[in-house]
Design brief:
Helix content is 53%, strand content 14%. The chain is of the alpha+beta class and 358 residues long. Strands 1, 2, 3, 4, 5, 6, 7 and 8 form an 8-stranded mixed sheet that branches. The longest helix has 32 residues. It is globular and about 70 Å long.
Length: 358
Amino acid sequence: MAATARIEITRDVAAIVRDDLHPQAQAIDAGLYPEDVLRSLGAAGAYGRHVDGSAAGLLAAVEAMTLAGEACLSTAFCVWCQDALVWYLARSEESGPRRLLAGVAEGRLLGGTGLSNSMKAFSGIEPLALTAQREAGGYRVRGRLPWVSNLAPGHVFAGIFSLPDGRRVMGLFEAGAEGVAISANARFVALEGTGTYTVMIRDAFVPDLDVIAHDAAAFVPRIRNGFVLLQTGMGLGLARGVAALMRGDTRGREQAEHLPLGPAVIEDRAAALLARVAQVARAHAETDRATFLETLRLRLDVSWLALEAAQSAMLHFGARGYLEGAEAFRRLREAQFVAIVTPSVKHITAELARSDVS
């Protein structure tokens, strides 16, 4: 696994979103993977803000993702995938995978998270999908991950696999490498441009050099708050984008002024949630369950805002929003993804209900 050549930094994140991303949003929704935009965002520093693990760094990463989400949730989701991969590498105590940190943080090496199944498995929702045997110098891994995003041949992603003795290990895989095949076997109602594939791992060898954590059970509690907090940029960006969409619609603005959720209300709620992100980020390194549950509550509230804001936009535009290719309908489909990406609304509410009972 090697990073590509450096990219010259010429513009900031806002300029890239305005000049490159906005004009391509519809094409990305239809299936265009925004690789050039993602590399440019990395060169502009979008993925390196939280490397130091500080609360301010996490907040800055969320704000960069929010800018992308205002225009296109597919791209914001890919930004989160990249951010999460940076988060794992930066938090690892192993020198091997950290050799890739600079390349990933700068967007020279792109990749995904690969931990959807793992996060569900740690919550007891489904079994761990990957299994492995220890071999000299590494691990021989088998299994299937149904959806891993921000992938293409040569991109990297993380995965957690179980050993016969019950131990769990977190390592890096390269899409398209020997034993790591990717295939696109489904079409989605939204986010077609996110490089989402099924990954089949057939006796792939993960050398010790690519092990992020030999004890994943101890490592995951250290990264999970940041993993979830970073996701808030997607929903906050979508909400702000929807508010701007409605505000710019002079044709329907007067009739829609009495809707329960107008642009000012959406933006106020987004600002309040961003303030909570800053507060919760200060405790991201805590591994207790109470802190994790507070992070999940915040993530849940962001999901509700995204859903309510997108629904309000549909009501605002009425029949105009119900046409194929309508911007309001794209944002509604995107908002539904915010609610189902791991940890989904269903996952979070189950976790919170379990804690209330106990």
